[in-house]
Amino acid sequence: MTTRAKKPFRFYTTSSLVEITGQKAYHLKDFIKLLKTIDSSCIFYHIHHSFREYTFAPGQYSNDFARWVEEDLEEARLAERLASIDVSEFTDLETLRAKLVEFVEDHLMSAVEIRKAAPGREFYFLRGTSIITPTRYEVNTLDEFTSALEKVGMRSLYFHFFDARLRLGRKTNDFSNWIRQELGEPEIAVKINKLDPYFITMDQLKQEIIALCQKKDIKMKAKGLLGFIKNIAGNK
Amino acid sequence: MAEVKLKDYAQITRPQNFEEIMLLADRLQGKTVKMVNSTKDGGGVAEMLHRVVPLFNELGLNMKWETIEGNAEFFDATKAFHNALHGKEVEITKEMFKVHNEVNDLNAKKMTFNEDIVVIHDPQPVGLIQMKDKSPAKWVWRCHIDTATPHPQVWKHLEQYITKYDASIFSAPSFAKQLPIPQVMIYPAIDPFAEKNRILTKAEIDSVRQKFDLPNDKPIITQVSRFDYLKDPIGVFETYKLVKKHHDCVFVYAGGAASDDPEGTAVLNELQERAAGDKDFRILLLPPFSDFDINGLQRASTIVMQKSLKEGFGLTVTEALWKKKPVIAGAVGGIPLQVINNFTGMLVHSVEGAAYKIRYLLNNPEVGERMGEYGHEHVREKFLLTRNMRNYLLLFLSLQHPGESVIEI
């Protein structure tokens, strides 16, 4: 028998308007000063924004700090450490900031030279204004949930999967939370929470969540990213 | 410009992104918006407004577009401002500032601003902000110019006006300044239905190939750029020489010839001199309004280059990616946002690097094909006109909630 939730799940979506702070860093000494003092919404933006967008390069560092350190300062070790920060482990931005600062300070303690980014390739601190809107999708059952998830955009997926951790201050996502509490499916909830979004696209993440809800085994990665893109294009 | 409807964009934009536009527009039904710039004809801004104003109205906003009036002296002054903001050395006089102020004063007296939102485009009409106190509107200044290294006096002159706006929009982080008002970033975008980007038939592409006497049995590597040292035309020629040692191919450098640009003429002369007698390095001088030919050239190409040494955003890269071409480009300005190294193209830092990567792609065409597919999807997601419209809708919504970083509507 299909379990019906007492409290329906409403899909929301979030869009970000990007604001330029005018603050920029030429090298890591500038960078760390700003990192320590800059508005936490900047930290949130640079760590999270790539998850809101459709990406074609899974495996590429997902946060802007790691990318800048790798591509423009060519400090591979620090870039690797910064990239290793897993957003799912943080439920508040100040702890996240402290971790970033720790990695950069460690690096500066042993750095033999301070590399400077080329002109025009400085790190520009940005921040996002999040605009949250309810979508028209409200669901009561697991079937309705997967059907709606198929239709909503990746920014809705982002809102419920990533943003929820910081919003709710707990180490889970909205989907797992609702599926566990309202549908009594703890196993699915745990599996969804364990998905690794770092090396797959958001569309692949969505398909994996749907497959878990349908208790199907999918081999999305085996099909290759190009086939996946063609599939999406074909579906339009 | 043929009228293109929202439903046409719905066919091209990813469905979820299109739905989001509808969702945001739903919250702005009936809002009155006025766009103001200096001309209805010519230039990227007018082209964009011709397209988006009817689309915003179709979405349920009530948007108007007006232009300011000015004399030749005014437009000479604002052209000088434009070049000076780009960092070019031009003579700026006090008289120019005076004319700029006077023409803005005259226009301000003639125009009304009773809308909810007013968006002023570029420096020409920036002084209309003097009407803010007599208007209920939120005022936004949209800067379409690369202001990374502006002429200090010109910037100071504009700043006195800009700081009075409720918000400003810049195309890249490096163009923004330290200002007391919010500076929103909206990347430039291309219109997939514009003559420069619309899908061409094979016959149309062949007609362009024939017009410029280009072969159909050899790879074609193209760069579309002004004749400007910062676009590295000489570097493109040097790249050609290195690639030509291994591959029978044709390079095309296609650019516009502006009669009032002495530096451009000098660059063109030097390039022509170096490439003299080399039949497979083609220099094409395109007249204004060559959008169809540019479209055809890009689509006829195997690889597109943009070996710039300095770049604003690099919309020619966006155009090429949209046409599913692998792009070999300098890692400068806005190019790395578009060319994700080894995914949508390859970033290079030297002539040797460019030649090496082109040889790699000529030997491995399937890699280029895959990059082309990724590039097309990358642009679909991030650099189409619809994304630009979404950003405007977000900005319009945020103007109703100043200072809030999370807005629930």
What can you tell me about this protein's structure?
The complex is a heterodimer of chains A (236) and B (409). Chain A has 236 residues and is α+β, with helices and mostly antiparallel strands. Chain A is built from twelve helices and two strands. In chain A, helix 3 packs antiparallel against helix 4 (76-83) and helix 6 packs antiparallel against helix 10. Chain A is elongated and about 65 Å long. Chain B is of the alpha/beta class and 409 residues long. Chain B is 44% helix and 15% strand. Chain B has 15 helices and 13 strands. Chain B has helices spanning 6-12, 15-26, 44-58, 72-85, 94-110, 152-162, 202-211, 233-244, 262-275, 291-300, 315-322, 335-338, 351-363, 365-382, 385-399; strands at residues 32-37, 62-67, 117-121, 138-142, 167-170, 183-185, 220-224, 250-256, 281-286, 303-306, 327-330, 345-348, 406-408. In chain B, the strands form two sheets. Chain B has a six-stranded parallel beta sheet with strand order 2-1-3-4-5-6, covered by helices on one side. Chain B has a six-stranded parallel beta sheet with strand order 9-8-7-10-11-12, sandwiched between helices. In chain B, helix 2 runs parallel beside helix 15 (385-399) and helix 7 (202-211) packs across helix 10 (291-300). Chain B is globular. The model of chain B has no long low-confidence stretch (mean pLDDT 94). The interface between A and B is large, with 42 and 50 residues.
